[in-house]
Amino acid sequence: MARVFVYGTLKRGQPNYKHMINTANGLAKFQGRGRTVEKYPLVIAGKYNIPYMLNIPGTGHHVAGEIYSVDDQMLQFLDEFEGCPDMYQRTLMRIEVVEWEGKGGAGEARAAAEGIVECFVYSTTTYPPEWVGLPYHDSYDSLGKHGLSYVLRESR
């Protein structure tokens, strides 16, 4: 099992969460909520209003999201869903645990107790330079006050 941190449309209550709970894609078990240890710019960009975490450590905010434990099948699904490695790149990042529900072995409990876990995160280094000038968010909600409604893949 691998640990994945999601900050956008794959979170609970967001438009693509259905993919996280669809066992045909593999298994994803909610472990808790967290935020990036380093600051990153989280922007909403493109004609479909997609949330992107730009891989520019030290700029932006500590981005909030959810931590999942996923099997290899789900990780492969997420790679395809996220257009990895062209649109997003999957990299390991340190995530500060804000709330932990995960039940695992001693390693899991120790990591949660220490407050920092390593997770795969889909961020991007392949973005138009003007995206750096967009507003930065610390958390994403498709219906947030930003007014930029996410366009589902099936509606594009």
From TrEMBL:
It catalyses: epsilon-(gamma-L-glutamyl)-L-lysine = 5-oxo-L-proline + L-lysine. This is Gamma-glutamylaminecyclotransferase. The active site is at 82 (proton acceptor). Belongs to the gamma-glutamylcyclotransferase family. One of its GO terms (molecular function) is transferase activity. InterPro entries: AIG2-like_dom, GGACT, GGCT-like, GGCT-like_sf. GO terms for cellular component: cytosol. It is an enzyme of class 4 (lyase). It holds the Pfam family GGACT. Residues 4-105 form the Gamma-glutamylcyclotransferase AIG2-like domain. One of its GO terms (biological process) is modified amino acid catabolic process. Its EC number is 4.3.2.8. Catalyzes the formation of 5-oxo-L-proline from L-gamma-glutamyl-L-epsilon-lysine. Keywords: Lyase, Transferase.
